[in-house]
Amino acid sequence: GGMAAEGDVELELETEPNGSSGGGDGAGGRAAEKPRKHDSGAADLERVTDYAEEKEIQSSNLETAMSVIGDRRSREQKAKQEREKELAKVTIKKEDLELIMTEMEISRAAAERSLREHMGNVVEALITLTN
């Protein structure tokens, strides 16, 4: 009795690796499903790409989307910074600045910006602001 049971246990242990390799087959079967999906879409690559992009965003894997947006942003940011640098070079008079602030009732920043955009020309800045 006792000895036979032990033999059984050994047999079970031996069949287990086989069983798990069978499980591996099951996993393999699952993996085989994926290419099938891809093949159906491969004909229409664009659709697949759209689908993939949608999936990315849906699966809240926003990283990709964010990095794309980020790239675009940093490009715009760079252009803006270049512009700001150009504008910063413009010399403006404090009196002009104060005049625009009082006339247009706008913040110092806004007044300064419009002055700079008009190369420090207070008349042009005022004209643009009144239009």
Automatic annotation (TrEMBL):
The residues covered by the Nascent polypeptide-associated complex subunit alpha-like UBA domain are: 90-130
**Where along the chain is composition biased (Basic and acidic residues)?**
31-57, 70-82
Query: Positions of the region Disordered?
Result: 1-82
Q: Which Pfam families match?
A: UBA_HYPK
Q: Which domain of life is it from?
A: Eukaryota
- Gly residues composition-biased segments: 20-29
GO terms for biological process, alphabetical:
negative regulation of apoptotic process; protein stabilization
InterPro entries per record: Huntingtin-int_K (IPR052617), HYPK_UBA (IPR038922), NAC-like_UBA (IPR044034)
Q: What is this protein called?
A: HYPK protein
The organism encoding this protein is Psilopogon haemacephalus
